[in-house]
Design brief:
It contains 32 helices and 24 strands. With 836 residues, the protein is an alpha/beta fold.
């Protein structure tokens, strides 16, 4: 395969870099790009950003690494907490309970619509400094991407480019975090990620070293890196040990230490020893630029004679300095700094430079992923450089360095420190390297050994490229996911039948047969044809005219069918639910179905003129971006679809909305939508008819019966429908409390027995109703208790006091009834209360 026109010139001369670029460009396989220090991994990333047509974002595990890579931090973009992320494997039940301080991977954070659209349209995720990324964090990324993209594919179907050297800096894992994570992972390193293990990926190791040219030094570094340090290697390195080595500052040595405190102490001591005037340069910070991302001190204290290091590449065409270059301040004023570097003819006049903190946004016009500057940090691009930690020296190159690795505490630290130097001659050891200082992780060594042995070649690349194109086309002509979504919607309709109205279930059922017969059955036959054509044309889809012709014809056919069978019917759906969670669920599922249809339609349309990988990926990414108002939502105001009396149904809904606002409750708390629908269908004009409607129980009748009956009666009269005699009077009673209804009937002259018969209640219930009003003093005993019985009971209670009804009945015998006793007691209680 020849180099395409957009391949960067810098990559064409390096076969490993070219291979990595082609894998990223033409396949969907994840790529782990590794290599020794100084092999051009950072250069590759910068070239990829300029030339790759894939929509990409760049993330890194730390703020400084993100700034250097021109990207954002993993935790900020994917909104992952810094604590341990408990993985959620959909295929495996949890074997260990989640501890209180452990969180499920990626949590349940809310994402902005813009960030969701970026993830949905993403082709490539670049993770720089992958050696520092924990396995659980990578699984957290997987979970977020699955959530917003393809749930059944690792990382939601996004391709990963992971850049880093595992023999350098490792993830930082606290003991208490590992106590949790060890229940889920073999190691803390990224390659133990469950999602990555379920993926296809290739490892490409860069061989050519640009930083060092001394073959003997390179050989020593490789032995340290590969854990092959023997006595001969240690002896050769320890020849660079110098006891009490104290070079003049003019020589430009920088000390590399294992701990931050050591570096700070050296820098402060050296600066304080200078007798020259101190100047403080305050950074100009705008917008969002958190302190952990500062590339140098926000209050930078400098003096003439101080040894400093540049912390940024010179953006001018002169390229006077680079990140990591060492020099000495030879002049300083309030306005600027002059730095002279060893070997340079002229000093550098250093002015403040700007660093940018960016976030990814979608360009409204082009729909491309752009970088939006959200904060800036402007400062003199220098920092004191008598000393620096090994960790912060990652990625830098020094001409002369003093290394103190005696207290090395982490995997890869000694290798990182040694490999910062261009040559063995520029290296000085302030303490001898002991065997125990060279720490390696056996798990890493096994993994890197496997990567080295399984380097892909041109043939594997061609196979991966062809497979990628075939997979894209197989996915394009696969309509089974639509049927699964339809069945899922039908299942939801059945489960939420009581909370859903409209034609959605009917419309979904009508889609099943045509989707099966005219899309799936036809596409199954076509995909079988494609498989044969793939086998006959192994060089790829774009190069085969026979394949292109079949794709063009199929794209036209399926595009028309998709529109007529799915997209147009989706636009005729009308449904409603007054349950918030149900409404949210259906809105989401239907929106997903419609979005998938629109993506499929756009991709099919792009192939009607043939399949071109670059164009296809662009169209697919653009279609995945959900613009406002694009999705088919529920049709709120289409009562004709579900009510025979739409005008009444609309009035009932308006009444319910006003009532809900006045009572400050949700709509469904007033009346369920299905109850309104049944009222609109049957138009009840009596309390008896209204009670027969599901949802109009006793309490609802008391609260809303009168208003609902009045609405129905008014509607009946407006349509010339029959209205029963006395309907208005009946309606007026409908909202009375059940006790009040009994009282009203009693006042109209009905006996207790008659009221009980009319209301289909027991005599005792009616007596209780009326006793309530006697006790309130609102009803006399006339018609309830005979005069003889009343006098007998009054005398009895005055003599014996208040007694339980059962005891009074036992003492009085058949002279009185239980109801007589109850009514007289209630009346005497009312009289006592009135006197008080």
């Amino acid at each position: 395969m020849t180099n395409p026109p957009n391949t960067p010139t810098v990559l064409k001369s390096n076969p490993e870099l070219q291979l990595a670029f082609d894998y990223v460009q033409y396949t969907d396989q994840h790529v782990f790009l590794t290599g020794k220090a100084g092999t051009g991994k950072t250069t590759f990333l910068h070239q990829l950003r300029k030339h790759s047509p894939k929509r990409m974002i760049v993330v890194a595990p730390t703020g400084v690494a993100a700034i250097n890579a021109g990207g954002v931090t993993i935790h900020s973009f994917f909104q992952i907490s810094f604590g341990p992320q408990i993985p959620q494997d959909p295929d495996q039940p949890r074997t260990v309970a989640i501890p209180d301080d452990g969180m499920p991977a990626a949590g349940i954070k809310r994402f902005s619509r813009e960030k969701i659209n970026i993830m949905r349209s993403l082709d490539l995720l670049v993770i720089d400094e992958i050696s520092m990324v924990r396995a659980d964090v990578l699984d957290g990324i997987d979970e977020v991407l699955r959530r917003f993209r393809k749930r059944n594919k690792p990382f939601g179907g996004v391709q990963l480019l992971m850049i880093g050297d595992l023999q350098q800096l490792a993830p930082i894992v606290r003991d208490e975090d590992w106590d949790i994570l060890k229940n889920y992972y073999d190691s803390c390193f990224f390659f133990s990620s469950h999602a990555l293990r379920r993926s296809q990926w290739v490892g490409i190791e860069l061989k050519q070293i640009f930083r060092q040219s001394d073959l003997h030094f390179i050989e020593l570094l490789n032995k340290v890196r590969e854990n092959k340090v023997d006595e001969e290697t240690l002896a050769a390195l320890n020849q660079r040990y110098r006891l009490n080595f104290k070079p003049d500052d003019s020589e430009g040595y920088i000390t590399l230490t294992t701990h931050n405190r050591q570096a700070q102490d050296i820098n402060e001591t050296k600066l304080n020893a200078l007798t020259t005037k101190a100047y403080t340069f305050n950074a100009e910070i705008k917008g969002e630029f958190p302190d952990f991302m500062y590339p140098t001190d926000d209050q930078l204290k400098l003096k003439k004679g101080a040894q400093v290091m540049f912390v940024k590449n010179d953006p001018s065409v002169d390229k006077r300095y680079y990140n990591g270059k060492i020099g000495t301040i030879t002049a300083i004023t309030d306005l600027g700094v002059e730095v002279t570097c060893p070997g340079d003819t002229f000093p550098v006049d250093v002015e403040a430079e700007e660093w940018q903190n960016v976030r990814y946004v979608l360009n409204e016009e082009t729909q491309e992923i752009d970088e939006e500057i959200i904060g800036t940090f402007k400062q003199i691009p220098l920092k004191l450089a008598w000393a620096i930690t090994i960790h912060k020296s990652q990625g830098l190159t020094f001409e002369k360095a003093i290394i103190n690795a005696r207290l090395s505490f982490a995997h890869g630290q000694v290798y990182v420190a040694l490999s910062r130097c261009r040559s063995l001659d520029g290296l000085v050891l302030s303490s001898r390297i002991m065997p125990e200082s060279v720490k390696h992780d056996s798990t890493v060594l096994r993994f890197t050994s496997q990567v080295e042995k399984q380097q892909p070649g041109a043939q594997q690349l061609m196979q991966a490229r062809t497979k990628f194109q075939q997979q894209l086309l197989n996915d394009l002509f696969d309509f089974q996911p639509f049927l699964r979504q339809i069945y899922y919607l039908l299942k939801l309709c059945e489960e939420h039948n009581n909370q859903l109205i409209g034609n959605l279930p009917l419309k979904m059922k009508e889609l099943v047969v045509p989707v099966k017969q005219e899309l799936i059955e036809v596409s199954d036959k076509f995909v079988a044809q494609l498989s044969r054509l793939f086998a006959e044309n192994p060089d790829g889809v774009e190069e085969s005219e026979a394949l292109q012709e079949r794709i063009r014809k199929a794209a036209v056919y399926f595009n028309e069918k998709l529109n007529g069978i799915l997209i147009e019917p989706l636009g005729t759906m009308a449904w409603e639910s007054d349950n918030r969670e149900t409404r949210k669920l259906f809105t989401s599922v239907i929106a997903n179905l419609n979005r998938d249809c629109q993506i499929k339609k756009a991709c099919l349309a792009s192939c009607t003129e043939g399949f071109v990988l670059k164009d296809y990926l662009t169209v697919k990414a653009m279609a995945a971006i959900e613009t406002e108002g694009q999705t088919v939502m529920r049709k709120k105001e289409n009562p004709m679809a579900w009510s025979p009396n739409p005008e009444l149904f609309v009035r009932l809904k308006e009444w319910r909305e006003k009532k809900a606002r006045s009572l400050e409750v949700e709509l469904a708390r007033i009346l369920p939508q299905k109850t309104l629908l049944e009222i609109a269908e049957k138009i009840p004009a009596s309390t008896e008819a209204l009670k027969l409607i599901k949802g109009m129980g006793g309490k609802k009748m008391q609260q809303f019966g009168r208003e609902l009956l009045e609405l129905c009666i008014v509607y009946r009269r407006s349509k010339g429908m029959e209205v029963p005699f006395g309907a208005e009077k009946n309606a007026a009673k409908a909202s009375l409390h059940t006790r009040e209804i009994s009282l009203d009937e009693f006042k109209q002259g009905k006996t207790v027995a008659e009221i009980a018969a009319i209301r289909d209640l027991t005599v005792a219930t009616i007596e209780n109703h009326l006793s309530y009003f006697v006790r309130l003093g609102q009803l006399s005993l006339d018609g309830l208790v005979g005069e003889k019985q009343e006098q007998l009971l009054r005398d009895f209670f005055r003599k014996n006091g208040v007694l339980p009804i059962s005891q009074a009945k036992a003492m009085l015998g058949d002279a009185v009834s239980f109801s007589d006793i109850r009514f007289v007691q209630s009346c005497m209680e009312a009289e006592r209360n009135s006197k008080e």
